Amino acid sequence: MAQLLLSELKPGDTIAEDVHSPLGSVLFQKGRVISSRDLEILEAFLVRTVSVQREREGEATVQEDDLQPAMEGRVPAIADSFQSEYDQTILLVKRAFSSALAGDIPIIELRKRLESLFARISEYNILTFMPEQAMEEEYMYHHAALSALTSYLLAKWVGLGPKDWMQVALAGLLHDIGNMRIDPAIISKPASLTQEEEREMRNHTKYGYQLLKNITAINDGVKLAALQHHEKVDGSGYPLGVQGDKIHPYAKIVAVADIYHAMTLNRAYKKKQSPFTVLEQLSKESFGKLDAGYVQTFIVKVTQFQNGALVRLNNGRLGEIVFTDRSHPTRPWVSIDGDIFNLALERDLMIEGIIRK
Predict the structure, then answer these.
(1) Burial annotation 210-243 (CB, 10 A radius, 16+ → b, else e)
(2) Alpha carbon distance 318, 40 (integer Å)
């Protein structure tokens, strides 16, 4: 083991002792293999020395390609197990959506697959998880799986009973299945839709309900979520323009998950946005549009455990979340090079991305 200056470190070195930020939280754990990105983070946090264990002279060094898990700031054994379950879910979702038009949606198989995924739900962080292979052309499937995960958690958080959790997850998974009846050229069109195309696009809610209405393995809430997830509490939504208490609770939950993941995933015609930016927009959207209580619960819960997270701000600098004010959950206090910035007051600063939790 050697104590080295930051300038002496190189990709492939193994950290021998936990590395702490100036405020005492752990930046990198013992045993981590350092990547080029890690060196930038250490420099940003003004870390001067690091204890490392190096390969003996003449032995092979670790290649940059071998460091991908470390570059993502995650523990491979844990993240890969959840990622593996998630990847299997995506494969099944693709098959299920493809067979939907023939009236063959494998609900029991989907339910079992979700049960396996939910067994590792503690490893799913809504703000930081990003699918490894979320290609733009597969947006529909990732959006479905992520909406299922988030709807499942939100159902718990807002107090629905255990018998509802899986059904709400299925509602999140299947809410956009009506898109399978829409011309793919409309769904992936990079330019603005014509009025006729917009009308057809809105029909996905009715198409989805029609595909699900005769399936006995799901309850009415799942079917109504497909129909109502674009309804608004003030009656300004579609397809029927129903208000508040006429919208099923499942649809209200799925609407929050739907908007969040639609804005934080890349699409052919729209680049993803920062999770914190989306949370702020959701908060504004809740007035008269979404269920305000569900939105507030969602925002509070997803920001509750972010202290110590390493984030990138819109000015390009890296910082560490050190305090989250419950009155301003999307605008925490951030430490940048030892200085504390309250983003609730520094309105020109905002979090663009979470580098590691």
Answers:
(1) ebbeeeeebbebbbbbbbbbbbbbeeebbeeebe
(2) 10
Which one is predicted more confidently, 120 or 28? 120
Q: How far is CA 206 from CA 29, 178, 182, 257, in A?
A: 50, 7, 11, 19
pTM beyond 0.85: no
Closest of 276, 260, 29, 285 to residue 151, by C-alpha: 260
Record the tokens describing residue 218, joined without a space: 């799901």
In this prediction, residue 288 has a pLDDT band, given cuts at 50, 70 and 90, of confident
Bridge partners for 38 per DSSP = none
Cα–Cα distance for residue pair 70/340, rounded to 1 Å:
27
* pLDDT, average across residues 103-119: 96
Phi-psi region at 298: left, alpha or beta (left = phi > 0; alpha = psi -120 to 50):
alpha
**What is the CATH number assigned to the segment(s) 76-302?**
1.10.3210.10
> CA end-to-end span of the chain, whole Å?
27
Q: Which of 9-13, 60-64, 319-323 has the lowest mean pLDDT?
A: 60-64
> What is the CA angle 152-114-124, rounded to 5?
60
Comparing CA positions, the residue from 11, 32, 65 lying closest to residue 356 is: 32
Q: Which has more confidence, 86 or 354?
A: 86
Once rounded to an integer, what is the mean pLDDT over residues 254-261?
Answer: 97
Q: Domain spanning 2-68 has what CATH number?
A: 3.90.105.10
Structure tokens at 179: 């898109």
